[in-house]
Amino acid sequence: xxSLLLAVASLAPADSLRFVVSGRDSAVPARTEGQSSFxxxxxxxxxxxxQVQRLPNHRYLVTLAGVAFELADRTPYAxxxxxxxxxxxxxRERDGALELPVQFFTDVAPRAGxxxxxxxxxxxxxxxxxxxxxxxxxxxxPPVETPPAxxxxxxxxxxxxxxxxxxxxxxxxxxxxxxGRDPGMRGWRADQTPVREKDxxxxxxxxxxxxxxxxxxAVIMTRRTDTLIALTDRGRIANRSKGxxxxxxxxxxxxxxxxxxxxARGFETYFLAxxxxxxxxxxxxxxxxxxxxxxxxxxxxxxxxxxxxxDMAQNEHLRExxxxxxxxxxxxxxxxxxxxxxxxxxxxxxxxKAYMPAVLVEVGFGTNSSDAAFMSSRAGQQTLAGAIAxxxxxxxxxxxxRVGIGGSx
Length: 409
Ligand SMILES: [Zn+2]
Known about the structure:
single chain; Copper Amine Oxidase, Chain A, domain 1; Aminopeptidase; 6-stranded mixed beta sheet; binds zinc ion
């Protein structure tokens, strides 16, 4: 399966990685293995005024042209500023050095904001003069976390944690579960008015959009109307928009085999991981069911390797997703008339494709008439949306404190 991915590498094997520093043409020898070329990261970073730091557990911090990347031995991706970038081949340790595919320098680093340009025609990597200066200063400075694009005019040595430093506006992806020919679960209010999951999720999501925008965030909606979006496309939308958070809104349904199914009520928040309990498996199965509504055309044409990489990518965000899920539960506890059913974990297809902290919120049970009434009322939806927006904002504040970037949000 690896060959599939390597076949799409834009870069043919080459003998060396050539680059220009201070107007002079230099080269670092490359080693070709399979269909990929590798170079010693220390050699390239050194020549460009960057550095490679060894971290515990075969991980590395590579600072290059003003941008810091985390890489790991035998891992085909790089993480920078909370974003994940795929490599055409896994990074590897060899004779005490870190070898990276040439594509990391020619494609990934420039995309991540490193001041480098790959001149494909002449096959040379060209750093901007400022990048070399930045890189040199980065030798003594802590890893630069703020993307340079955020403030190109700022001096490179400005402390990254300065609270006044403007950061990129945070992007939150809001996903209203189900839609179109997939109604999701069906339930009833006490007066026998039917409720459909797809209407509740859209109602809450649209309110959530407003609540988040009011708090200064940029919001991307996976859908704003009654349409069906394929599960994996929802994650792709999130990735394309470079979202910082992914929040999927759903409505729960009691298992008819429970002793008193109509009495079950309350809210729970999931993050992506293997389902551990029977109940978690039930919810995952129910939410993954939608796949049967997706036609051939909607269906993803993913290869197994893509899935493995997604799996690894998501692991990077497990702890963050768990933390976000805790925030959501905490905020809902303050406003929801039903009980908290806690933070749970299960394997949701919708979350697999999102390369960012991602949660799925079951805002209540449509099979319980009180929950159904609350969730389908405008006031209830407003309340739920406000609490989820608070949770996102609390989570992001904690996150920014942890990674030491002053976010203007
Ligand atoms: Zn659902």
